[in-house]
Fold this protein.
Amino acid sequence: MFWNPRIERMPQKEIEEYQERKLRALIHNVYNHSAFYRRKFKEAGVNPWDFSGRKDLHKLPFTKKQDLRDNYPFGMFAVPISQIVRFHASSGTTGKPTVVGYTANDIECWAESLCRGLVSCGVSRDDVIQISYGYGLFTGGLGFHYAAEKVGATVLPTSAGNTARQIELMKDLKTTVIACTPSYMLYLAEYAYKNGVSLKDETELKLGIFGAEPWSEETRKRIEEKVGIDAYDVYGTSELSGPLFTECTEKCGVHIWADHFLIEIVDPDTGEQLSEGEKGELVVTTLSKEALPLIRWRTGDVTLMENEKCACGRTHPRIMRILGRTDDMIIVRGVNVFPSQIEHVLMQIPEVGEHYMILLDRKDDGLDVMTVQVELSEKAEVDKVSDMLELERKITEKLKSVLNVTAKVEVVNPGTLQRFEGKAKRVIDRRKI
Amino acid sequence: MVEFEDNVIRQLSVFVENKPGRLAAVTEILYKEKINIKAFTIAEAGDFGIIRMVVDRTDDAYRCLKDAGFTVTLTRVLGVEVEDEPGGLYRIAKALGDQGINIEYVYAFTYGGDRALIILRVDDIEGAAKILDSRGSLYKEKN
């Protein structure tokens, strides 16, 4: 099934011609309407009138997460705020969020992209879709919500959490499709099992769309076996809009809608373009976004690209599973965490030292646990146990307020954590993904 | 011998992770410096513990534990002589409680062969010392 058969099956030559036209228009548009891009293009010696299209793409400067932070909140917007119909925000390394904005067209285009994905996984108006991604500033919940309504499915907007209720509603309202993080799906299955409910036998679930954190083929198999559904991958980042692209029923890569997004794979160190099949950083240029157009956006996600037409008939390029990150960002329970955020919190607490470690584990029930180890400083008073517990509680609370995710805090003796001479490797990821 | 400072005992508190060998590491340092432990207790709280002790050479012990990288705090505590008969501890606890003084923790050890001494941390050390001294039960420097 197709949502937009003409576009989804458009011959690749036509897609490329379409991209050329949109790309040239985009370069002129951002040059004229965004002080940020005009400055960046001038610095890079790029004149829109000399820009011929895709073959000149490599001459354009990259856009990075730091640009969004430096221009917080509106510096990179290319339309007046009166045209913005919605904001979303994610937490940033300094505790300052990065803000993204959408025009009415941007919301429409976002929903259109995900609609194509939903239909390619087999979602239709006959389905009841339970959206267990967080609603609110996070793009997951509302992103799925708009697309699912547009498809005509029945939406059950449970948001994340309250697992007992999720399972009760799933049974009573006969949910057929679920969208959440893969780790939450495993937790739901485990929780149901412990409470005497088999999701496989006692619900109508037939498929799930999982993302917002890295996962693997092994996890797909586990989910599919435990829950008795087909599990599909979804990709997107808040900067690009939110959840945008999914696998189709072939399960061999995520289709990237090339009429709206132009992708490249580059060497994360040199920035050189890599060819199809080579592993590198995914770089995306948004061809249709109005509020916050991104030119050569460095996603930080490592993957490889496949241009071959998919067996499902779709002609748009695909990316394979996300293999890792180029920066030190970690994803815990669907939340992006930078070690520098943790460092920033710890540095404000006089009782702890400047050295720390972050340990990531995945429990048997599928939930991720982040442990932050910190050393006591000279200033710590260590006589009363209650003071020490209070210190741990204080650190936990401050971390939670900045990271939006709970970390277990372990205080250790000074000088016992690993020291680094070169680039610090403070994250030990012991999760089996 | 216990060292006093205005009839107050200086106690060492050492933070240790709840891991094998940590207590050995602390006591080995003291042993090598020929420091004698007079009173000792461990408060355990999940993944860490706090060793509290009274030693014969407090400043030396503080310095060598610090040098070895431990987090050490000096705390002022009171020593209380308890009569060896029913109600000994009760009378002291009541005397302090009646005056609104809170006991934060307490541990005991024996000395001089047949005598029991209790180490107290209270929220008002001067007030507690006065009450205990007036009852003749404060363990203090012999003049």
Strands of chain B lie at 4-5, 8-17, 37-45, 48-55, 72-82, 103-111, 115-122. Chain B has a mean pLDDT of 88. Chain B has two domains: 4-75, 77-134.
